[in-house]
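cron nightly-structures :: item 1 of 1
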Amino acid sequence: MGFKCGIVGLPNVGKSTLFNALTETQAAQAANYPFCTIEPNVGQVAVPDARLDKLAAIAGSQKIIPTQLAFVDIAGLVRGASKGEGLGNQFLGNIREVDAIVHVLRCFENDDIQHVDNRVDPIADADTVETELMLSDLESLEKRVPAFQKKATGGDKEAKIAAAVLGRALDLLRDGKPARLVEPNDEEEARIFRQAQLLTSKPVLYVCNVEEESAAQGNAFSARVFEKARAEGAQAVVVSAAIEADLVTMPPEERAEFLEAMGLEEAGLARVIRAGYELLHLLTFFTVGPKEARAWTVHKGAHAPEAAGEIHSDFQKGFIRAETIAFDDYVALGGEAKAREAGKLRAEGKAYVVQDGDVMHFLHS
């Protein structure tokens, strides 16, 4: 499954530079002027997971296939986007198609790089983008909610539910708060709320783009962003797009030494992915054999048949059971055969909730 994250932000905050670095491509034209990204660039990224290498080594797998993550580089936003200013309509339409928003904020000073407002203030930048998203949602719901309310008076059950949950979202937006603060009362409300595709219902990851010297500890600008994220229940990470851009030009064997010299334990991609997984409530399970060791992604709380369906829809339809070994047991015991002998291989049915790191084999009709 993986997930799709839309990289957004004001012009010249480092979005395209970060995208190029994360996807190890130069697909997005990174330039020092607004709207250098006209069409959204999409990059598929392998999710790094050291556990996969361990499993492959034990099983003698010929191939290692990590799970995938998609990044979408979306054109820079300006004030008035909700009214179609700049590339507003396209910007908002592209955001609607992603699962989460990766909001890149400029947390560095550099007189050579123009800011659209001639100042460095990541909180104000974040508020500018959020305001445009809220205005778009507000305009949408002010049309839709009355229509649902009218249908509800006629006895339409689904319209009644929609009027209730989207009405609460409308109240929040009128109060200057994003729709993601809505808490659906049940699964039916949650389903209708998801289908509404509100821009401010998307979970947010703030990426603080700092100068190289602040990549390890952050700076005063990023500290303010982390405070904002905590208050909103969002996530935040510190990344230096300049460092990430340098990393992708280096041979793999030189990257660890470079990161150590910069005071970093890992590349920015790993931090962004880990935060993204937490943000979207995702986990990884594995399938392992002599031909390949492969990682798969499902949402936390997914049952075994849903995991089987990630491999093939027929596996979910004809699901019988899942033979499951916890990652730690697989590694400690040296593989499937010894885990089976030790009684650590479990036969799980349809009600089993998949755990992060499970090594699974599905039996199906």
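cron nightly-structures :: done
DSSP finds 14 helices and twelve strands in the chain.
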